[in-house]
Every structure is written in C-alpha cells, then in structure tokens.
Amino acid sequence: MAEANPAPTTSAQPGHEPSKLASLPKAPASVLVSPGVWILAAQGNALAIETADGVVLVDSGRGGQMTAGMIAELRTLTEAPVTTICYSHGHVGYNAGLPQWVDHNAERGDAPPRIIAHRNLPLRYDRYRETEGYQAILNEMQFPGISKRFDPRKIDPTETFDDHLVVSASPRVELLWAPSETDDAISVWLPETRTLYTGPAVPADFIPNVGTPQRSLRLTGRWANTLDRLIELRPEVLVIEFGPFVTGEDLIQERLSTTANALRWLRREVVDRLNRGLNERDILADLDYPDEVFGYPWLTWAYGSPEYIVRDLVREESGWWDRNPTTLHPSAPADVARATFDAIADPGAVIAQAEALAERGDPQLAMHVIDLVALGPDDEPAVVRARSVKSDLCRSRSKQIAPYPSKGLYKSSGIRLKQGVISWEGVIE
C-alpha cells in the first residue's frame, strides 16, 4: 500500500529561489527514510546517507542557525564523518552553509569533505556573480525587504561531473544529472533500497516550476525527459525537494508519468498554436487546462503555473517581439508617457473606468485601463492618483491569483506604486 510520510521542509526562505510551500508547519529536524538514510530540514529537504566510509550529505543549508541545527541533528543520528557534500542544484541559499560543515569536520579532526556538483553549477555561480545587483533586485521584487536580510553566498565545488557519478560503493550511492528547474540539478539514486532523491526535478504539490516570471528558460521538454529517466529507475521511495517523501512504486510511477505528460501536453498545444500564427497572448487566451491532464494533487498552481509554462515555451521558440509594430523600435519611456498623457482628454474618466472594473471584480482588466494614466509623467496629479489606484488593484489581484511568485510580484509592485514610483532603479543601495 503506497503512503506518504512526514518529512522536513521549511517555511518560505526568501533567497534566489525560495522554499515553495510557505504555509507548511514547522517540520521535525530529521526523518528516517530507510536505515542509515535521513532527511534533514534545510532550505529544502537535505539528505544524509551513512555509508561504509562516512556520511554523504546533499545540501548544506543556507548557513547560520539553520546549518548549525543540521549539524547538531546529524550528530544525534551518527558519529560518522561527513566525507562528501553534494549540491542538489545551483540556486543560492541551498549551500551557503557549507563553511560550517567544513569547520565542523576540522573541529572533529576529520578530513575535509569532497564538494561535488554538476559541471554546470560553477557556470551558474559565475553568472550570478556577474549579475549580483540584478539578482538582488529580482529577489526584492518577489520578497520586499529581503535584500537587507539575505546572504547570497556562493561557494564553488571542488569536483564536478557530467552525467553520472558513483560516490559510494557500500551502499551504492549514484549521482545523476537531472536538468529540470536548473541545468545543474542532480538526483541521487540508492539502487539497493530503490530510494530516489530527486532534488528540484520533482516539485512538491504543484506543477513544475517552469517559466517563473523573472527567471531564465527552464526548457519544458528537457524537464519531461529527466522525469522519463527517473521513471525508468522504478523507485520504491521518492524523496522530493520539499514536503513529505512518498513510498510505493505504483504511486511514484503515476506521479512522475502524469507530470511528464502534463509538460508534453503543454508543449504540443503551444506549438500547435504557434504553427497557426497565434502569439503569446492569443495562446494564453485560447488554452484551457483539462482535468484529465492537470487534475492531480501534485499538479496544483501553488507555485508553478501552466500559464508560466506557456510563456516559457513561446520564449523557447521565438524572439522578443510581441507582434506589435510599435514595440519594434520604441521611443524613450519618458517621451511615451508625456505623449500618451497629453492625448487623453479626461484622465479622470480613465481612472473612474478602472475603478468601476475593479468594483465588478476584475482588477486585472482594470490594470490594463489604469495604465493609460498610471504610466504617465511623474509630475501630473492625475498620474499620482492613478498609481495609488493601481497599487490597490495589485493588492486585489494578489488575492485572486494562485501561483506564489505572482502574489509576491503584485505585492511588491503595489508597494512601489503606493510610493509613487514605477521604476526599480536604485532600489538596491
């Protein structure tokens, strides 16, 4: 009989990629998966595997009290040295606590651990270092105020691998490249107990995190191919990045196969509409998401969204142009703002129409209308009023929408608009 088991997770940790299930209660510090294999509560579900040589650890936590708690908890479970630390993927926060583990080994007189990641991870860290200011702005957009609290520490691994690496023979512990949410994600396979730790390749109770509004392409088809690779292993125990682990081959096969099927369904439907000449907004308006494809408890819109995936798929196959000739070589934003505002005979009527739409329960349509004024020149009283109204619309829309990233972006945009600004320039000092 398949069953779900309690496992550690954390409330949302606002970093480069936060925890996905902000509403879950505080989890236990560790959960036994099988003899010598534990989940440790970290940025997501970290994994500790006791082998004949020592502990193989997947993810070291974001540092500070979190990592200190992981170390203390591990020492209630085993005194074996930590010989290997693996990065599940390259999103910042999952392994900022690595120096604490290295120091812990030194204090015990143990050798420094091997630090292993996929070969794409150092390239990701290089890109994050190059765009550090931009990454901070993106975080601030989704998590207002986080830039003052978050330490985006990035520590390169000492070893990398391409597709497959055996890190222990007793028990056998294999690292598999599992490109999905990132191109450096890995899964961990323990064939003797048929235990699979998926990292970010298998989300918690939501559709895969493809097309998140501010992130780079996630490649929907490639993610589905990764799920196919994991399906072929026929695991009996599934440890996912967040939330409880799952047992039972049949349930696990259903979960992985229906997720892959949903991703491929989306690609087929989007490509079909691209082939017929529809643009992104046309496709979004035309698509429905049938229950026979998406009606599973692990494919909710809690963090990921089919609409996100649609937009990512369009970006995979097309350039940046939205089919509007006006946007090919646009005028300066300030010039557009002044010209548009001057062309409106009665800005107050525009604002009133937006407010009426909001009263009828359609803040999204109201935002399209209010932008005729809200994007106008900063020094116009009607623009100041329109931005205040738009701020309220953002707050209303955040309550209507399901995906967590969208909620955060509506909220942070509303805060900025309430301050009378629409630009993010200078938000990070």
Under the CATH scheme, which architecture of the largest domain would be assigned?
Answer: 4-Layer Sandwich
- Output the strand order for the largest sheet: 1-14-13-12-11-10-9
How do the SSEs run, as a string of H and E? EEEEEHEHEHHEEEEEHEEHHHHHHHHH
Q: Give the terminus-to-terminus CA distance.
A: 55 Å
Main pleated sheet: 7 strands, mixed
**Beta content:** 5-15%
Global Rg: 24 Å
**How many helices in DSSP terms?**
14
Shape: globular
Number of domains: 2
CATH homologous superfamily label of the largest domain:
Metallo-beta-lactamase domain
Secondary-structure-based class equals: alpha/beta
- Mean pLDDT level: 91
The share of residues in helices is 40-55%
Number of strands: 14
Uncertain runs are: 1-24
What's the CATH C level of the largest domain?
Answer: Alpha Beta
How would you characterize the overall build of this protein?
This protein has helices at residues 64-77, 98-108, 121-130, 132-142, 220-233, 249-275, 280-286, 291-294, 306-317, 333-343, 347-359, 363-374, 381-400, 404-418, and strands at 3-5, 30-34, 37-41, 45-50, 55-58, 82-86, 114-118, 159-161, 164-169, 172-177, 186-190, 195-197, 237-239, 245-247. The longest helix has 27 residues, at 249-275. It is built from 14 helices and 14 strands. Strand 9 and strand 10 (172-177) form a beta hairpin. A seven-stranded mixed sheet has the order 1-14-13-12-11-10-9, covered by helices on one side. The protein folds into two domains: 3-263, 4-Layer Sandwich (Metallo-beta-lactamase, Chain A); 331-418, Alpha Horseshoe (Serine Threonine Protein Phosphatase 5, Tetratricopeptide repeat). It is of the alpha/beta class and 429 residues long. Helix 1 crosses helix 2 and helix 11 runs parallel beside helix 13 (381-400). It is globular, with a radius of gyration of 24 Å.
